[in-house]
Design brief:
Elements lengths: L25 E7 L5 E4 L19 E8 L2 E6 L3 E7 L7 E8 L5 E7 L9 E6 L3 E6 L4 E7 L5 E7 L2 E6 L3 E6 L2 E7 L5 E6 L5 E5 L4 E5 L2 E6 L12 E5 L5 E6 L5 E6 L5 E5 L3 E6 L2 E7 L4 E6 L5 E5 L3 E6 L8 H18 L1 E2 L2 E2 L19 E6 L2 E8 L4 E8 L11 E2 L2 E2 L2 E5 L8 E5 L5 H12 L6 H11 L54 H16 L11 H15 L11 H13 L6 H10 L3 H13 L3 H9 L6 H14 L6 H6 L1 H7 L9 H21 L2 H16 L5 H17 L3 H6 L2 H9 L4 H14 L3
Parallel strand pairs: 2-3
Antiparallel strand pairs: 1-27, 3-4, 4-5, 5-6, 7-8, 8-9, 9-10, 11-12, 12-13, 13-14, 15-16, 16-17, 17-18, 19-20, 21-22, 22-23, 23-24, 25-26, 26-27, 28-29, 30-31, 31-32, 33-34, 35-36
Pfam family, one: WD40
InterPro entries: ARM-like, PFU, PFU_sf, PUL_dom, WD40/YVTN_repeat-like_dom_sf, WD40_PAC1, WD40_repeat_CS, WD40_repeat_dom_sf
Organism: Brassica cretica (Mustard)
Length: 786
């Protein structure tokens, strides 16, 4: 569903195609500087064709904004936008002139606003996974407007006269005027992946629901359908539509998802795809393919006809047909070498990656049994050898090649290929076992042979059979009565069945999902808390300006009494607090300077876990609904202190323990998650862990409440942590458990898949941490379930 909306742009091409001679494009220059995927590009305000903004999945350099032939802006997963200017010495090349910092997560779509008297170099509009739309002054690189309102990732931005219109995974379109939201409406039933304005004045949006919609204001004029039938072909087609809804032309050539489409007044079209190619089209025919060392997220024309591409290797590239603008031969050779190395790294022999095979020196080690095979890399090929036990040498068998059309993609175990090789976790600290299976096999046969090989109890048989049937997609299985049990030599025993079983697939066994119950932070250093509160109180008392905010001696004594009650956890059922105790702590938090409030906040964290303390606090919250929100605002203001953020997030985490707070937590989930959204990238690992625990508890609560909007926001935030390379292991684990639980029992599995959660699961399975591997396996298995 991701490519259909990218064909929106071809609506604009009616009447533009003309016969021209075609010259091949060649590399002009590379724009290097982003630390991750280049994600988005954008068109000149003077260009008669508005930009088609790409979807924003995954990472790297993700977008291009072609402000003019002299200036290009690119966005990236590294959270930056870079502006590139034409070199003064070499007019073929661009150099980075500005780096725009302001987004807290991946930056995707871009759009440029023409120069004005107030902004002589124009402005730039950007959307991000952090849910915000920012407007930048290109003179000084500063943010002049921050547009907040979307609940999830911003996927598209476009200009409508003086307004900005944005699209989002939250299924809405929003219109912004002079920095303010003026209208918002639900545009589709699934994530809206792109929006743009047509020359005729209408807006058009594209969605994961496989439709395009034409808008006049908030009124839908027409719905375009027709891409749904191509979903099984990974949406690799491009369609040209008339505004009447008629499909005028279909272009087929890409072998994977198409992420971007752009057109030039010459009649040429360029498209970028996950198949690593930017394809150039003339009159519906592909006339050239530009190969890249990664996914091509975006591709756009310069006014001159040159093409700019954004690639997942973190580099934007400019391509030209003009002889005097082509790169030096050395640069072209280096790029060709890069392509060769990339292809070599992905080449498979016998289902194995060539670059992961051992070298020929591996044959210096003797084999362990006669006939043992070993595949080694010799040059660009994989060569198989067999161990000759009698002569103690490796005999060459021959070159290993992949079979036709995906045969080489079948998994291999112990030198044999199978339709499936399942990971089976039998628990009890045992290692993961590999279970091979071919569709042609009797699943009872496969299960019994495997149990015998692994020396496991026969009692596992039916569970293993159900697992095989579920995960191999076999809804019905007819038992063959001629099958002989390898354990007894007799027919296999199938409980409550004679010779036939219509198997109802069992639910897959997951290691870590769904999460049941909530987590809390229930350990406190009470002596340290008291020491710090006393120190801060003495400081206030000696300060003439703040002495009235300090606690009296009797109040200090009362704090010590509170601590004494909290330390005696075995008598929580029989101890009580007074309203004055709660009021005292809340007054300290509200009245003391921000730099001094965290010890009192930490006491409230523990007080929440005391049944009577929690009930008294809830009464205060009921009487003043903004009480906790005011505290959150205080600790998250500019120059927020990590200690305040940490203790406040921990308070919120512990609130989930008491059902009285569940309604309040649900009602204010958006404000709370927005307030602490930057915590995921904090260098403070304790804060990372507290924030990920907050998300996990929210996942549990909002699944129970069937709150789809809230689940979607938690999912988006958890994905940020899961994709953060620097995230602490425990923080990443809890975020992954939240993601898996939301997908399994929540209402957002489809949204998670749209967010490319499969790549997150794949990355987790490649981790060195056992529990990350396990939860990655859970999510991967969940993705494959219908």
């Amino acid at each position: 569903s991701l490519s259909l909306y990218l064909s929106i742009y071809l609506l604009l091409l009616l009447g533009l195609m003309m016969d021209i001679d075609f010259n091949e494009y060649k590399l002009r220059c590379e724009l290097r500087g982003h630390d991750d995927d280049v994600r988005s590009l954008s068109l000149s305000p003077t260009n008669p064709l508005p930009p088609l903004l790409p979807c924003n999945c995954d990472s790297q350099v993700r977008g291009i904004c072609v402000c003019t032939d002299e200036h290009i802006a690119t966005s990236s997963r590294d959270r930056t936008i870079r502006v590139w200017s034409l070199g003064s010495d070499d007019k073929r090349k661009y150099s980075a002139s500005k780096i725009l910092l302001g987004h807290t997560s991946f930056v995707g779509p871009l759009a440029s606003i023409p120069p004005s008297e107030e902004y002589p170099e124009g402005r730039l509009v950007s959307g991000s996974m952090d849910t915000s739309v920012l407007v930048w002054n290109l003179v000084n690189g500063e943010v002049v407007q921050s547009l907040k309102g979307h609940k999830m990732q911003v996927t598209g931005v476009t200009l409508d006269d003086e307004d900005i219109v944005s699209s989002s995974v939250d299924q809405t379109l929003r219109r912004w005027r002079n920095g303010q939201l003026v209208e918002s409406w639900e545009a589709h039933q699934s994530p809206v992946q792109a929006v743009l304005k047509l020359p005729s004045g209408e807006l058009i949006s594209g969605s994961s629901d496989t439709t395009l919609k034409l808008w006049k204001g908030k009124t839908s004029l027409r719905t375009f359908t027709g891409h749904a039938e191509y979903l099984v072909f990974q949406n690799s087609s491009i369609r040209l539509w008339a505004l009447s809804g008629e499909v005028l032309l279909e272009m087929v050539g890409h072998t994977s998802i198409v992420y971007s489409v752009d057109a030039h007044a010459s009649g040429l079209i360029v498209s970028g795809s996950e198949d690593r190619h930017a394809k150039i089209w003339k009159d519906g025919v592909c006339v050239q393919s530009l190969e890249h060392p990664g996914c091509v997220w975006d591709a756009k024309f310069l006014e001159s006809g040159d093409i700019v591409t954004a690639c997942s290797d973190g580099v934007a590239r400019v391509w030209t047909v003009r002889d005097g603008m082509i790169a030096d031969q050395m640069e072209i050779d280096a790029f060709d070498s890069l392509i060769s190395q990339y292809k070599l790294s992905r080449k498979k022999v016998g289902g194995m990656k060539l670059d992961e095979l051992p070298g020929i020196d591996a044959l210096t080690l003797p084999g362990t049994s006669d006939g043992q095979t070993k595949v080694v890399r010799e040059g660009d090929n994989g060569v198989a050898y067999a161990w000759n036990m009698s002569e103690q040498r490796w005999d060459k068998i021959g070159e290993v090649v992949d079979g036709p059309d995906g045969v080489g993609d079948r998994p291999i175990l112990d030198g044999a290929q199978y339709d499936f090789v399942f990971d089976v976790d039998i628990g009890d600290g045992e290692p993961i076992r590999k279970l091979p299976y071919n569709r042609s096999e009797n699943p009872y046969d496969a299960a019994d042979k495997w149990l015998l090989k692994e020396n496991l109890p026969v009692a596992y048989r039916q569970q293993i059979v159900d697992f095989i049937l579920q995960n191999s997609g076999q809804k019905d299985f007819t038992f063959n009565p001629s099958f002989r049990d390898p354990f007894t030599g007799a027919n296999a025993y199938v409980p409550e069945q004679a010779s036939h079983i219509a198997a109802t697939p069992a639910k897959p066994l997951y290691k870590h999902i769904p999460k049941r119950g909530v987590l809390v932070f229930d350990v406190a250093q009470y002596e340290g808390i008291l020491k710090k509160m006393t120190e801060f109180n003495n400081t206030l008392r000696s300060d003439p300006v703040n002495t009235d905010k300090s606690m009296t001696e009797s109040e200090v004594a009362r704090v010590r009494a509170i601590v004494k009650i909290l330390k005696d956890t075995s008598h929580y059922h029989a101890t009580n607090f007074t309203d004055m105790d709660i009021a005292l702590l809340l007054n300290v938090i509200q009245a003391w300077p921000a730099a001094m409030m965290f010890p009192a906040t930490d006491l409230v964290r523990m007080l929440v876990l005391h049944p009577h303390g929690a009930s008294l606090l809830f009464k205060h919250v009921e009487n003043n609904n903004d009480l906790l929100l005011d505290v959150i605002k205080k600790v998250t203001e500019d120059s927020a202190l990590p200690a305040n953020l940490l203790t406040t997030v921990r308070v919120l985490v512990n609130l989930f323990k008491n059902p009285s707070f569940h309604h309040w937590l649900q009602r204010h989930h958006s404000q709370i998650l927005d307030a602490f959204s930057n915590c995921y990238s904090s260098p403070n690992k304790n804060l990372q862990l507290a924030y990920s625990t907050l998300l996990l508890n929210y996942a549990v609560l909002l699944i129970e409440k069937k709150d789809e909007e809230g689940q979607a926001q938690v999912l988006s935030a958890a994905l940020q942590i899961a994709e953060e390379e620097a995230a602490d292991v425990d923080s990443k684990f809890r975020s992954l458990v939240a993601i898996g639980s939301l997908m399994l029992e929540g209402l957002v599995k489809k949204i998670a898949i749209d967010f490319e959660v499969e790549s997150i699961a794949k990355s987790a399975k490649a981790s060195k941490e056992a529990k990350i591997i396990e939860i990655g396996t859970d999510i991967d298995l969940l993705i494959r379930q219908p």
